[in-house]
Amino acid sequence: MRRHKKQIILSALTLSVVYLFDAYKIQLLLENVTSSVLKIRARALSGLVLGCILHYDRLSRHADLTARLQLLADVPDFLQRFADDAIAIDAYSVDQKG
């Protein structure tokens, strides 16, 4: 699938998850969190974070999703990579403005 189409789909998934919890959509976001493409990874992370914050009570009822989130949290450099991505996205948006 072309990257821009995947980015649009991930944005739509995010909006949908914000509105209504869906374990399958959370799973799709989880599958894209480790993408090698920064923009895809960023959109998936954004949707995942919002979904986890807004639907924590429902998310905790899905053992498969919580186990997958725990596996992600156990990746040694995941948080550092997340911080690096945020810096890269910020630098990219500054470059686009200037």
**Please, how many helices?**
6
| Low-confidence residue ranges | none
Helix/strand/pairing category: mainly alpha
Major beta sheet summary: none
Strand content: under 5%
Secondary-structure map:
Elements: H1 3-19, H2 23-32, H3 38-54, H4 56-59, H5 63-73, H6 78-97
Helix pairs in contact: 1-2, 1-3, 2-3
What would you note in describing this structure?
- The chain is an all-alpha fold and 98 residues long.
- It is 81% helix and 0% strand.
- The chain has helices at residues 3-19, 23-32, 38-54, 56-59, 63-73, 78-97.
- Helix 1 (3-19) runs antiparallel to helix 2 (23-32).
Q: Would you summarize the structure shown here?
A:
The chain is mostly helical and about 100 residues long.
Features:
about 100 residues, mainly alpha, about 80% helix, globular
